[in-house]
Amino acid sequence: MTGRPNNALAQLLQQAFMALRAKQFDVARQLATEALKSNRSDRNAVLILAHALIGLGRADEAVVPLEKAARRNSDPEIETLLGHALCNSRRSVDGIAQLRRTAGRRPPYLPAFQELAGQLANGGGVGDAIGIIADALALAPASIDLQLDLGRMHVRNNNRTEARRVLSAVRNAAPGRTDILTELAWAQLLDGAYADAADTYRHALGLRPDDALSRANLAICLMEMGERDGGEAALRSVFRGRPHMLGRAAFALAASSHGRFFFRPSAAAKFLDRERAAKP
Question: Does residue 78 belong to any structural domain of this protein?
Fold first, then answer.
């Protein structure tokens, strides 16, 4: 008898978690709220509820349950999500202060550093964000994710040389991660190293062929290298079956010094619907 309520709560939380993963935020919110009726201090229910509310654009409503949970226990995951919710509730000063406190805890909770760096960068403090990631790397120098974050921050800071250095090292450490490859390729593209960027994008697409954004960026590289037919063929493959990618494909055409510009989206769509023999 005593096991039934716990089993029911576990099933409810599992359903809520699956809904959250599927980005069915309102369903996840309802299920997590129901779970909290059975146990108001359940940590997982609070986390799911908060994530669901943030996903619904209601971060301010996530603050109260997270604050209550943070007062009950010293939980860096709860505290980090609280900092995120505060920053997204137009309470950035409180959110940054919370994240700094959590990042100051030992042993270190690395996601707190990452969230703090992201919030600082979003507020224009990219240099400060780089410092935060550097502090985290001093505590966990082998962290691939932190090294990737550092590379991304250098890209945002328009320090392309340092970004390429950091991201190249990370790629060598974790060659099978497409997120690292695409970030490195973007840094190479921005730096005008189109041949290097094209090779890196091809590697990424070999691992994840359906990555439409990478294929669109590959098209820019090809056109900048004078391979206009190959670039346009790549954009046609991006647009085919993905009408929502028209804007990105049209931008790629217009952004290249060897591309094309269309005054009307319908004209760009008509051009991209054509079949060409050339392949990227």
Answer: no
